[in-house]
Structures are given as C-alpha cells and as structure tokens.
C-alpha cells in the first residue's frame, strides 16, 4: 500500500464495489484524477466519501463562475490552513486551467500580477477566520454559492489531507519542479476546462436534506447537508463531556493556529479522543503517532479513526459556516 497514507491503510481502490466504485468512476471522469488520495483515504468510512466528493464537485467543478477563480480561492484556503499537499495540488490545477504564468508566480511565493486574482486569493485566505467580513465579494454575487461551497469543501479536505496524508503530492516531491507541475497540469487540462453537469453527484447521496441558506436552489445545498450529517455522526466516538469540550473550544476559536506547545489542548492520556478531534479541527498537521496510539484501543479501527478526524474537521467547517456574515450585497459606488 502507498506510503502516502498516515495512520490508516484504506481498502485497495481496485477492490471497490457499489457506491464507492461509483464515486471513483465519477471522480475519474469529472476531476480527471484516477482515485486521488484525498478521497481514497475517506473510503475507510464510505459514508463520508460520496458527500465529500459531492460538495467539491458541485462547487469547484460544476458550480458557476471561473474555474481559475475558484482554484485561487481554494489555494487561499489551503495556504490559510497550512496544507502543503493541497497548496501543491491547486498550483497544478491552475496549470490545468491554462493560467501557467499565474501558477508559477504563486509557486514562487509571489503575489498575482492581476488585482482581481489577488482579491480572490485574499478572500480565500480570509475564510479561515470565523466571522470575517467576506463582502464585497471579489466575484459576481450569483457565483457566491459555488465560491463559498468551494472554500468550505477545502476547509474540510485540507484537514483530512493534513491529518491522514503525507505532505508530498507526487512521489519524491516531484511537484517541486516547474516542468513536472506544468506537465501534470497540462495532462488535466482537457478535463478541467470541460463543462460538468450540475447535480450529477446527488444520486450518489443517501439523503438530500436542506443545506445552508446561502446555497439554496443549487446542488451545493444538499451536498453540504449530506457531508454535515455524515461528519457529525462521528460524535458518537466521544463521550458527552468530550463533545461539550470540542463544541466549546470551537465556539471560542478565532481562526488562529495553536501555539507550538498546544496550550489548552486536552491531555492525550486523559482525553485522547477529544484531543484528536480538536487537533483535526485546528491543527491537523500536528497530529502525531503518539496522539493516535493514545486513542487507539483494541476495538478501534481505521474506519473509526477516519470518522473521528472527519468529525473534528467538520467542527471547524461548521464554526466557519455558522459565523458567516452574509448580509445584503455591498454595492460598489457608481
């Protein structure tokens, strides 16, 4: 099994059947990447796989608005969350959109030359802070569901990747080389620039409940609701006191990254489950072998670890989403 995975050994993708196989098939067609690790790692808990894919597909891929713009927003989210894996992935995907100069400027740590691109990137960065003023949007108002869905999808995916994957997008860190980034992006170009049918992922979901108001009337709404339901079910892995601790800690979170000493986090010997959930929410890149070992009892397995991490990851997403301040559109002066 690939060394790309930390702490779990997901089922071999070639053995996938039923709903999992259907999701992989749609990912290959619409994302252009055959069984990407960010989704394979969720297959240990299949109920999370389809809604995580659906939210990303219906916002980033099939949602309204510029794919370059949404990739920039996702890159901003990934930078804010300190997820090298996803930062590299979006740099490659910017190559796939055909914006090669922009991709390389960002890969070098430079600001985009375009003020419009800078505003979208900064908007993505700002979404990590609960309650941040995200208006006026750096994109048309009617594209907000797709951009907000993209940002929230990657607040979840970043945390899954940082917690459960190693940092290298390609073997040996080959994504560090410009030629490799460009070639990888060009290989995806036809798929990325092709239109995708909105709502095609929804038949993969078990339920189609109502999502947040900002997504009403779009496929992003039921996709978000399905991921929320699937991720929040992981609460059953914690006792009531631990759930209260996680909830109260997230209510007080202001978007900052924890200090190096992880002051205020539960002790791994006393509340290992709560510690893992909060690390997944606030600093998934800080999860260690010791943290996982302290939680891992004989009755625990990969499915439960993925569910616990997803619960913590979505707790952060939920804090960000419920703090959104989306009043009346701000109109530019005439």
Secondary-structure topology with pairs:
Layout: H1 18-30, H2 37-40, H3 46-61, H4 67-80, H5 84-96, H6 100-107, H7 115-126, H8 144-164, H9 178-192, H10 220-232, H11 240-252, H12 272-282, H13 289-295, H14 302-322
Kindly describe this structure.
The chain has 334 residues and is mostly helical. 54% of the residues lie in helices and 0% in strands. It is built from 14 helices and no strands. It has helices at residues 18-30, 37-40, 46-61, 67-80, 84-96, 100-107, 115-126, 144-164, 178-192, 220-232, 240-252, 272-282, 289-295, 302-322. α11 packs parallel to α14. The longest helix is centred in the middle third of the chain and has 21 residues, at 144-164. The radius of gyration is 19 Å and the shape is globular.
Approximately how much helix is present in the residues? 40-55%
Give the topology string: H per helix, E per strand: HHHHHHHHHHHHHH
Estimated share of beta-strand residues: under 5%
Task: Provide a count of the helices.
Answer: 14
List low-confidence stretches: none
Rounded to the nearest angstrom, the distance between the terminal CA atoms is 59 Å
- Radius of gyration, in angstroms, nearest whole number: 19 Å
Class computed from helices, strands and strand pairing:
mainly alpha
Sum up the overall morphology in one term.
globular
Number of strands: 0
Largest sheet entry: none
| Global mean pLDDT | 94
């Amino acid at each position: 099994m690939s060394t790309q995975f930390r702490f779990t050994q997901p089922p071999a993708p070639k053995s996938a059947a039923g709903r999992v196989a259907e999701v992989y098939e749609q990912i290959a067609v619409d994302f252009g990447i055959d069984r990407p690790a960010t989704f394979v790692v969720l297959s240990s808990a299949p109920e999370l796989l389809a809604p995580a894919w659906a939210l990303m597909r219906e916002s980033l891929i099939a949602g309204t608005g510029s794919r370059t713009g949404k990739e920039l927003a996702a890159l901003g989210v990934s930078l804010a969350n300190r997820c090298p894996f996803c930062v590299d992935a979006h740099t490659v995907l910017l190559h796939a959109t055909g914006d090669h100069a922009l991709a390389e400027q960002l890969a070098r740590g430079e600001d985009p030359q375009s003020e419009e691109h800078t505003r979208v990137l900064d908007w993505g960065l700002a979404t990590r802070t609960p309650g941040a003023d995200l208006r006026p949007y750096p994109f048309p108002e009617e594209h907000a569901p797709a951009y907000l869905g993209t940002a929230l999808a990657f607040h979840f995916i970043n945390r899954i990747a940082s917690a459960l994957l190693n940092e290298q997008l390609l073997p040996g860190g080959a994504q560090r080389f410009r030629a490799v980034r460009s070639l990888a992006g060009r290989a995806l170009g036809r798929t990325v620039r092709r239109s995708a049918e909105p709502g095609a992922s929804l038949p993969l979901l078990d339920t189609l409940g109502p999502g947040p108001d900002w997504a009403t009337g779009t496929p992003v709404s039921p996709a978000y609701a399905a991921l929320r339901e699937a991720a929040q079910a992981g609460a059953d892995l914690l006792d009531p006191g631990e759930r209260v601790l996680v909830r109260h800690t997230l209510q007080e979170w202001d978007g900052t990254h924890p200090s190096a000493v992880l002051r205020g986090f539960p002790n791994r010997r006393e509340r290992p489950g709560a510690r893992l959930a909060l690390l997944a929410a606030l600093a998934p890149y800080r999860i260690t072998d010791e943290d996982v070992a302290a939680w891992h009892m004989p009755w625990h397995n990969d499915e439960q670890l993925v569910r616990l991490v997803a619960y913590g990851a979505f707790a952060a997403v939920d804090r960000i989403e419920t703090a959104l301040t989306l009043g009346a559109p701000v109109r530019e002066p005439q």
